[in-house]
């Protein structure tokens, strides 16, 4: 679901209003005639699908395995759901659609990278993650503040002027930007660490490192560590048996298995 849902949302739904919506390319159009802008059918259903998807992520977080980044993901889901609901209620659907399109672009790639990792296609996983990292960092640290925050903070102030909900909306957007910065730091840190160890692709950049319960935990890592653990276990068992005078060819406490003893006659 985490791959099949955002993929059509990013590829097909926004495509329905790409060609005829001038506010996609000229962000000032998001504020002309606000708040009396008509809500089109395609944007209406786009909002319903996005809100349903993030609500499912929010509630499934409580039934899934608790991870180290639970609080951060919880705050992200709360901020996202609040932004979707708040922008819809206040008829900020145009700029809200821009924010959702921007976020869906990178989410598709990380879910595809996870599936490639599960399928043990390491080269494909590495390629998809590299694409994800580039798009995530460029879109959320460059495009998001220049394209989204610029229009919500400055263009809206110039055209519409500040109003009560304006402050709340921008506060939520700025909090989302702080989360973007934190995750970008984790991605760069984890990627550098993995490259230095020669294990590119065997991690989940959206979860804290050393969390062995991460969604993208590599099954190949398990196969590499399993024989080593078995060898270590066998070695310790052999040492223990030798210390007690027992080995494979000798029975308990140095006696041959199945041998007859003088005191048994």
TrEMBL record:
Q: Which residues cross the membrane?
A: 43-63, 70-89, 125-147, 167-188
Pfam families registered for this protein in UniProt? TRAM_LAG1_CLN8
Which stretches does the entry tag as region Disordered?
211-265
> What's an example Gene Ontology biological process for this entry?
ceramide biosynthetic process
Q: Which UniProt keywords apply?
A: Membrane, Transmembrane, Transmembrane helix
A GO cellular component annotated for this chain's UniProt record is: membrane
Q: Where are the compositionally biased (Polar residues) regions?
A: 242-255
For membrane topology, the record states: Multi-pass membrane protein
Where does this protein chiefly localize?
membrane
Reaction it catalyzes: sphinganine + octadecanoyl-CoA = N-(octadecanoyl)-sphinganine + CoA + H(+)
Q: Which InterPro entries match?
A: Lag1/Lac1-like, TLC-dom
Q: In which pathway does it act?
A: Lipid metabolism; sphingolipid metabolism; Sphingolipid metabolism
Ranges for domain TLC come to 1-196
Could you tell me the superkingdom of the organism this chain comes from?
A: Eukaryota
Task: List the PANTHER family.
Answer: CERAMIDE SYNTHASE 6 (PTHR12560:SF43), LONGEVITY ASSURANCE FACTOR 1 LAG1 (PTHR12560)
What's the protein name? Ceramide synthase 6-like
The species this protein belongs to is Notothenia coriiceps (black rockcod)
Source taxonomy: Eukaryota, Metazoa, Chordata, Craniata, Vertebrata
Q: Which gene encodes it?
A: LOC104961144
């Amino acid at each position: 679901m985490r791959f099949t849902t955002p993929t059509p949302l990013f590829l097909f739904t926004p495509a329905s209003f790409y060609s005829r919506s001038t506010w996609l390319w000229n962000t000032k159009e998001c504020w002309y005639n606000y708040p009396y802008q008509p809500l089109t059918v395609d944007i209406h259903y786009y909002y319903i699908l996005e809100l349903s998807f993030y609500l499912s992520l929010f509630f499934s977080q409580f039934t899934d395995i608790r991870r180290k980044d639970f609080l951060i993901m919880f705050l992200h889901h709360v901020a996202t759901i609040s932004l979707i609901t708040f922008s819809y209620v206040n008829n900020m659907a145009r700029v809200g659609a821009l924010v959702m399109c921007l976020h869906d672009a990178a989410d598709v790639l990380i879910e595809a990278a996870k599936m490639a990792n599960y399928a043990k296609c390491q080269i494909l996983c590495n390629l998809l993650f590299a694409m994800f990292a580039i798009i995530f960092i460029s879109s959320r640290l460059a495009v998001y503040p220049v394209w989204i925050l610029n229009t919500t903070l400055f263009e809206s102030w110039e055209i519409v002027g500040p109003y009560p909900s304006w402050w709340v909306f921008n506060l939520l957007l700025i909090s989302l930007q702080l989360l973007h910065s934190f995750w970008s730091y984790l991605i760069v840190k984890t990627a550098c660490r993995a490259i230095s160890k020669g294990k590119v692709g065997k991690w989940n950049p959206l979860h804290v490192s050393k969390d062995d319960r991460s969604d993208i935990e590599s099954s190949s890592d398990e196969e590499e560590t399993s024989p080593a653990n078995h060898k270590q276990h066998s070695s310790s068992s052999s040492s223990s048996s030798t210390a007690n005078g027992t080995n494979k060819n000798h029975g308990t406490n140095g006696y041959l298995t199945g041998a007859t003893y003088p005191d048994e006659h």
